[in-house]
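The authors assume throughout that readers already know how a fold can be written as discrete tokens. For illustration, here is how one protein appears when written out as sequence plus structure tokens:
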Amino acid sequence: MSKIIKVLRPAILCFVVMTILCGVIYPGVVTVIAQAVFPNQANGSIITVTLKDGTKKDFGSTLIAQEFTKPEYIIGRPTGTTNLSPVGEEQEKLVKERIDWWRALDPNNTADIPMDLVTASGSGVDPNITPEAAEYQVARIARERGISEDAVREIINKNTTGRFLGFWGEPAVNVLKVNLALDSLL
């Protein structure tokens, strides 16, 4: 029995030490640094709005997609992910269904539908769309809300982020922020 304990002792000691290091100390240090340097992101980037009656309400995260389908709102990418091939028949069928949905939502809009409005992102919860996808929806939103297209564009522009460091990534429009601004909550 003592031979087994002698053999297992280093393994158990290593397990305990690594559990404390990797399971307690490291996450604790990362959490403290995140809270100090990036508190908004570390807490989920939640949009909290003070309503007219003085109460505060959480509307969602700027990092996770919210599903909007009403015509008076800007509509984001389809949510959910699949393992479908981007060139497979099933994916083609899904894209066609989504194109038909967009055409039924706004039959007067004959422009080409931007790709990000008919394909899901890799994560399935992308909160942003391209400026082109937002522009595609401007006339419908303005008509549904009874406001000018310029007013809608101004809200979109205020909620569009540019490239990181001026060259990395693509400009993006945050769907939730635009819709809250359209409802005059932001």
